[in-house]
Amino acid sequence: MKKFMPFLLFLMFLNITAQENQETKVRQTIETFFKGFHTKDTLLIKETVSEEIIVQSIGADKDGKATLRKEDFSRFLNSIASIPDSVDFREKIQSYNIQTDGTMANAWTPYEFWYNGTFSHCGVNSFQLFKNGSDWQIIYLIDTRRREDCYD
């Protein structure tokens, strides 16, 4: 049994290292998405997503009632591309909680959104990703948006 213990430890180490490597690749995909977002580079954004991506937002209407809105991805891209250069916007990711299982990953990313240097809103992004060959692609993105209780 003593002879097998180093081998078992080695296998456990390999599994942990592979998991960390996949989490790093998932994070890189999301960071590339936001690089495209902040530079209004819609081609870069498109490199990170599946052709069938689903985008939704959870917010509140004027009466404070929760709403779920599906967004057309091509319309999202057009709105990003049409932002004037004079507008400074930044989505600041506060942390990453990434989980993977084979070719599927989830990333939970609390954020703050700043518009022309002024706090606009906060929330959480939930990314679902699919590993297509060696690349991770975002297949589903849903976020929450609120102006209060940002630091729970």
Automatic annotation (TrEMBL):
Alphabetized SUPFAM superfamilies for the sequence: NTF2-like
Keyword terms: Signal
InterPro entries given in the database record: NTF2-like_dom_sf
Domain of life: Bacteria
Signal peptide stretch: 1-18
Protein species of origin: Maribacter arenosus
Gene3D superfamilies registered for this protein in UniProt: 3.10.450.50
This protein's name: Nuclear transport factor 2 family protein
